[in-house]
Design a protein that fits this description.
six-stranded antiparallel sheet, two-stranded antiparallel sheet, globular, single chain, alpha+beta, 159 residues
Length: 159
């Protein structure tokens, strides 16, 4: 009777290609769970869902989430651009639309994830006083805002 032979190299390669994604997801889940454990105790922070992923919220707005095996954070658009340029992150898309203030982080680094979550939480907690508020304040200082029909100021040139 012939004996079946199995190539050790092919088994190893097949095993590694299946195991790596599982390990990456486990590492990412552990790192994100540590973020959740820390941040959930902070004032105004809760856990919620966005884009079918677990997320951290501050004042009912998501600032960080785990998508598959990557941390996704909401930070100013210029920070997203810098992170993409440095190779630290990638754009985040939802429904084919690029979310300009969201970035997916490459790799699992719990200390870096903590710092990014802190930055994202502060950015989102600032609300309109964050990026949009700063832009509006700049328009007001430059005298380029104009009143809307209901008396509110909008940031466009007069004229």
């Amino acid at each position: 009777m012939p004996v079946a032979s199995v190539s050790v190299a092919s088994v190893s390669v097949a095993s590694v290609s299946v195991v790596r994604p599982i390990v990456a997801r486990m590492e990412a889940r552990e790192a994100f769970d540590a973020l959740v454990a820390h941040d959930a105790a902070l004032p105004g922070v809760s856990v919620g869902r966005l884009f079918r992923s677990d997320g951290l919220r501050v004042n009912d707005k998501i600032y960080a989430m785990l998508v598959v095996d990557r941390l996704v954070v909401k930070v100013p658009a210029d920070t997203v651009a810098a992170m993409r340029a440095s190779g630290e992150g990638d754009e985040f898309t939802s429904g084919g639309r690029v979310m300009r203030e969201w970035v997916t982080i490459r790799g699992v680094d719990p200390a870096r994830w903590r710092a990014l979550a802190d930055e994202a939480r502060a950015f989102v907690a600032a609300g309109p006083a964050g990026a949009a508020g700063a832009k509006a304040a700049g328009a007001k200082a430059a005298g380029t805002e104009r009143p809307a029909s209901d008396g509110r100021a909008i940031g466009r040139k007069r004229g």
